[in-house]
Amino acid sequence: MGSHLEFSYYPGCSLEGMNKAYDKSARAVSKSLGIDLTELNDWNCCGASAYMSIQELRAHLLSARNLALAEKEKKDLAVVCPACLTTLTKSNRYMGEDPKLRRTIASALRAANLQYLGTVKVRHLLEVIVRDIGEQEVKARVSRPLSDLKVAPYYGCQFTRPFGDFDDKESPVMLDTLLKWLGAEPVNFPLKAKCCGGMLMTTNEPIGLGLVRSLLDCAVQNGAECVATICPLCHITLEAYQGNVNKKFATSYKLPTFYFTQLMGVAFGFSRKELGINEELISSKRILPEQVEAA
Amino acid sequence: MESNFEPKIVGFLCKWCAYTGADLAGTSRIKYPPNVTPIRVMCSGRVDPVLVMKALSSGADGVLIAGCHPGDCHYQSGNVKTIRRFKLLQRMLDQFGIERDRVRLEWVSASEGERYAQVVENMTETLRKLGPLNWNGNKEAS
Amino acid sequence: MAEKIGVYVCHCGTNIAQTVDCKSVVDYVSALPNVTVARDYQYMCSDPGQDLIKKDIKELGLTRVVVASCSPLMHEPTFRRAVEEAGLNQFLFQMANIREQCSWISENKEKATERAKSIVAAAVKRVEFQESLDVKKVPVNPNVLIVGGGITGIEAALQIADSGKKVYLVEKEPTIGGYMARFDKTFPTLDCAACILTPKMVSVGQHPNIELLSYSDVTGFSGYVGNFTARVRKRPKYVEDEKCSGCGLCTEKCPVSVPSEFECGLGKRKAIYRPFPQAVPNVPVIDTEHCLYFTKGVCKVCQKFCPRGAIDFDQKEVYIDLQVGAAILATGFDLFDASRVKQYGYGKLPNVITSLEFERLSHASGPTGGKILLKNGQMPTSLAILHCIGSRDTNFNEYCSRVCCMYSMKIAHLAHEKTGARVYEFYIDLRAFGKGYEEFYKRVLEEETIFIRGKAAEVTDVPQTPAERGKLVVVAEDTLLGIVRRIPVDMVVLSVGFEPRKDAVEIARIFSISRSQDGFFLERHPKLAPVSTASDGIFIAGSCQGPKDIPDSVAQGAAAAANALSLIDRKEVTLEPTIAVIDEESCSGCKICIGLCAYNAITFDEAKKVSKVNDALCKGCGVCVAACPSAAIEQRNFTDDQLLAEVESVCVSGK
């Protein structure tokens, strides 16, 4: 029953570390939906850090290697991290538009017995689910609707910017739509596409904390009981720094934070352990249905 | 191919769009390879395939036909006829064993000076790689 | 008998001579067959330059002339005239473009000179095959068609009509007046727009030489300079112009109220309406999408109350053909749609409005009676004006819309005057280029308007401090201070830029004119011919050619009028004889050419069984020439012999 889509799965570095739960839950729900996520063999870091500003050519090369490997498999790349999405898409596009860059990268790839002809598309799993799988198939698998759970849908700054033509750049709605299909209630969240400050936490924590505070404040003011994220860095930033925010601003935020795939998993009937929810830093026991405990 | 081979290209440019666009490239002082010698016609639809074959058999390495973008032809649909003739001309080139890249049809509007320069640059590069046509075998050495 | 060809190589100052070795070209050309004389000179287009040619024609008996200089699009007419004055037919002349397409595109002197030689040699070969041709003179129809009844079209219409010629003024809307009719005050004098516009509108409406076709558009345009036929569609108003007295009773009684386009949706109008009270013609039209009679078959109250019986629900659209000698396009512009720039919240956040909406609020007969009010009915205590919305932006339009800085300052002044609010202007650069404009800027500065140099990044209603609660916050980098600022205000005005009208593509197609890269109509020459187009007899004026303010629009309207009158007063125009001609002997009667002609200029002579070209209809494109399998059709001045000679010369000569 259902669809059968095949992708080369590119988890990205963070999913091997602090964000294992994202990986777990993404694989679980993809399997349910009939999305075949075969991990790309021997993938390397996409270079989504500041590398592009320091060594542009080499940064492109990191992406190009992944794209070349994916092209060998003759499948598109599915990612779950918007930073990976941006970096891989950027290199993909620039190589397509700039013949000089393309030639240079091609000669470098040749040294590794690889080539890239520009046929791979890079897509975020959220976009694949909402666009390709669609409402009917998702709803068909919802055995435990999230019964009006008030969720702040948080996209972060890189989902639609700069290359995301698949949704409204300033005010995307894809995650809102998916949450509705799961039975949840996405609240009005004007700062949904604003920066979380994740990149700043190591260099300028006060500013980073200020940004996190704005987001939490906005979510809570609009009645959110939790936040849904689509980016591993946003997730960590929002969840792990709530304590520091409370200390600095004398607030008392305790907002559970979920990966969107975790919420999907809950609605599909998976257990806390299967979705990695038991690894959360802020307890969601109050708001998730009891049955999730048991399984 | 020879690195200092300069392809000779004959350009049929329609007065209203392509020729004016080429003029604009000059007025804007854009520098581009001088390998296309322009021949002005009123419409790209005037370009008889005989003229193209004459150019190739007289020593040209390539021919560029440039007219108005489809829908913008000063004479309504002249460029539509050009497209049709061009497709048949391509088949003829195949039969002669002449590479299709040697004869190009491009749309350049009167305000596209930059584009004209790019088209010429592009075509010159392509022909440089293809090498001289050597129709009669008596092309002078460069 | 061999031809005697004179070749003249122009230096064009240093434009050509700097890159092309003119003397070398002269030497090369002198050695070509049939070249009697070859000279070079500083400026061939000057009087002494032209005299060189004339002298040689008379003294040396030249039979052909070639001038190697700039583009024929520049000076072909100049030299053709010179040649004719010396007694030689102007078509025995050819130009070689060694400037725009040679010296200006090359840095390598050697290559440029070789190329120049090749180009000139080709022209020499070609001119040998050229023949004398007689130009056709046709009378010019003295009527003029003006499309668009905004301030530009109005100016052009009045100038031409005052000179005694007849003008057909076609306007799409129910009334003339254009955008200017919607403005409150105009910069820098702060003249009331309606006060200076309406007298002109009335003059147009009453002028005996102007036939005003309102609520109409041009659906077809054919012919040639001096003899055009315009097909105009008069859309049904369902009100008879001649019977209507403009009393306005129908609009009073109409029960249907809908948002008014004239008021930018801020006010209402009826289903039978005049856009504004001073409309010319002062005749209402019925909006069939909302009229109860047209949608449900009921009501007809307007007809019941009309004292003149002017309402006619059975009116149909009418097509008429107008014969004119020239056409002026003054179709105007559209404003950039601010909802496309999502970060400013237009359409989502209340009290974010466009500049035009502000004009309507400020206007005494606008939806708020001239008061600047927020959505909650209160006056703003602070206001921000954001420059360059949709302009100077690679995401939307790269060009500058020219008028927005000035109108923004005007808005600042009006806001200050009417509300006493604190006014902020967020700008990138300030463009106050016109007469009195810089002085106006100084005045606005003295009114304590705060200018912040930094394009606004976003407008948000999510507060970060108590002071921001309930306000719209404009976030911008103040580049002069080097910090990011958040300024809370009550109202945000977006200074939207100009764009070509959505129907500009269609209009350009109908009139066969080109558009520039930015989509506005293309002028013949940006400096020297801003109101002409490449098509003789068709002129453009006003914002349809590019964004401009009222003084410049009026200037262009008058300029286009002068151009049109100049054409008409010549009484006749000459047509290029570069048309197609069929040699009956060679024609096999295959009729391939007939179907190809876009102008239906070729007919079949059943008696002789050959095709024949109607030289009044033939435009000289050459499509039939290329198609004829018997080579029976020739295009004058673009014959196969001439083109083949050119081709051969180019391929054989030089490297």
**Rg of chain C, please?**
31 Å
Helical proportion of chain A?
40-55%
CATH architecture of the largest domain in chain A, by name, is 3-Layer(aba) Sandwich
Instruction: Report the major sheet of chain A.
Output: 4 strands, parallel
Mean pLDDT of chain A: 92
For this structure, the CATH topology of the largest domain in chain C is FAD/NAD(P)-binding domain
The helix/strand series of chain A, from N terminus to C terminus, equals: EHEHHEHHEHEHEHEHHEHHH
Strand order of the largest sheet of chain C: 10-7-6-18-29
Biggest interface reads: B-C, 53 and 53 residues
Q: Quickly give the CATH architecture of the largest domain in chain C.
A: 3-Layer(bba) Sandwich
CATH topology of the largest domain in chain A: Rossmann fold
What fraction of residues of chain C sit in β-strands? 15-25%
Could you provide a short overview of the structure?
The complex is a heterotrimer of chains A (295), B (142) and C (655). Chain B is α/β, with parallel strands linked by helices and 142 residues long. Chain B has helices at residues 15-27, 49-58, 78-96, 113-130; strands at 9-14, 36-41, 62-67, 103-107.
Explain the overall architecture.
- The complex is a heterotrimer of chains A (295), B (142) and C (655).
- Chain A has 13 helices and eight strands.
- Chain A has helices at residues 20-33, 51-54, 56-73, 82-97, 99-110, 125-140, 174-181, 205-221, 232-240, 242-249, 260-268, 272-275, 291-294, and strands at residues 5-10, 35-39, 76-79, 122-124, 150-154, 185-186, 226-229, 257-259.
- The mean pLDDT of chain A is 92.
- Helices cover 42% and strands 16% of the residues of chain B.
- Chain B has a four-stranded parallel sheet with strand order 2-1-3-4.
- Chain C has 655 residues and is an alpha/beta fold.
- In chain C, the strands form twelve sheets. A five-stranded parallel sheet of chain C has the order 10-7-6-18-29, covered by helices on one side. A five-stranded parallel sheet of chain C has the order 20-27-21-22-23. In chain C, strands 2-1-3-4 form a four-stranded parallel sheet, sandwiched between helices.
- In chain C, strand 8 and strand 9 (191-192) form a beta hairpin.
- The longest helix of chain C has 20 residues, at 109-128.
- Chain C is globular, with a radius of gyration of 31 Å.
- Chain C starts with a strand and ends with a helix.
- Chains in contact: A-C, B-C.
- At the B-C interface, helix 1, strand 2, helix 2 and helix 3 of B face helix 4, helix 16 and helix 17 of C.
